[in-house]
DNA sequence: AAAACTCACAACCGCAAATCC
DNA sequence: CGGATTTGCGGTTGTGAGTTT
């Protein structure tokens, strides 16, 4: 999912329904694959009213779906900025590198791949990349050689020092602490993709919903 | 030609976090 | 402040399409 969807609570929260009626009434909702008509209703509604308040959206849009289902359909399939199509080799490698560093944080990984969704990346990982890594002799879970590798230190240090700030933060909270001398920069920068299309560090990190803290790479160290 | 099997991906489920009242 | 509710995330499942036997 892209950065604008980051954070447990967003401005899209609907105040009028917050903390009231029970969650989605499943008794009278459609399930399974979406029809073209349902897609059109959802697209038309969001074009007219924008995203937000998923709870009340289905009724307002004339859909017999729960809000959760509408949100998922829009984010994963109907959004106009989705890229679709095959993943490029560069995207493959970026996913592998990010996964090695942060694990199954699909939404964070998706935030670094413009036009890709967390669900898409998760599926792609499970169907393609896992096998690709196994074929390379790499365990897709640990990113270590399958035949056993003694050097766990690099990976563990990566994992330990990466902290994920999942929610939007103020500029102050994103400032690196002086004490631990960490640098706060975007992943692409650390991975050497700065300036690429996937890199967002040309934008102020204060505006980014996701940031990471980790020590700067030593000279010659691989990300 | 058709049954069995495999693959890819859309959609669902359950939980945790965020927020409101 | 705590309970109630919504939203968002990651894991899992269902199913249609493609391939093999």
TrEMBL record:
Residues 10-19 have a biased composition (Polar residues). Keywords: DNA-binding, Nucleus, Repeat, Transcription, Transcription regulation. SMART domains: SANT. GO terms for cellular component: nucleus. Residues 26-78, 79-129 form the Myb-like domain. GO terms for molecular function: transcription cis-regulatory region binding. One of its GO terms (biological process) is regulation of primary metabolic process. The lineage of its organism: Eukaryota, Viridiplantae, Streptophyta, Embryophyta, Tracheophyta. This is MYB protein. InterPro entries: Myb_dom, Myb_TF_plants, SANT/Myb. Residues 1-20 are annotated as: Disordered. It is found in: Nucleus. Pfam families: Myb_DNA-binding. Residues 26-78, 79-133 form the HTH myb-type domain.
């Amino acid at each position: 999912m892209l950065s604008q969807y980051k954070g447990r609570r967003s401005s899209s929260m609907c105040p009028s329904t917050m903390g009231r009626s029970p969650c989605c009434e499943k008794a009278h909702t459609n399930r399974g694959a979406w029809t073209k008509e349902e897609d059109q209703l959802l697209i038309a509604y969001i074009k007219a009213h924008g995203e937000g308040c998923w709870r009340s959206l289905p009724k307002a849009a004339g859909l017999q779906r729960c809000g959760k289902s509408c949100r998922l359909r829009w984010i994963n399939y109907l959004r106009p900025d989705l890229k679709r199509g095959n993943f490029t080799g560069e995207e493959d490698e970026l996913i592998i590198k990010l996964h090695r560093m942060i694990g199954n944080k699909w939404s964070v990984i998706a935030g670094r791949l413009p036009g890709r969704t967390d669900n898409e990346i998760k599926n792609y990982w499970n169907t393609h990349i896992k096998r690709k890594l196994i074929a390379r002799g790499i365990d897709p879970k640990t990113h270590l050689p399958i035949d056993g590798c003694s050097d766990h230190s690099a990976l563990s240090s990566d994992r330990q020092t990466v902290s994920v700030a999942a929610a939007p933060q103020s500029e102050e909270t994103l400032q690196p602490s002086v004490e631990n001398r960490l640098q706060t920069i975007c992943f692409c920068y650390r991975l050497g993709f700065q300036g690429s299309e996937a890199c967002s560090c040309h934008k102020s990190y204060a505006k980014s919903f996701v940031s990471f803290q980790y020590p700067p790479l030593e000279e010659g160290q691989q990300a």
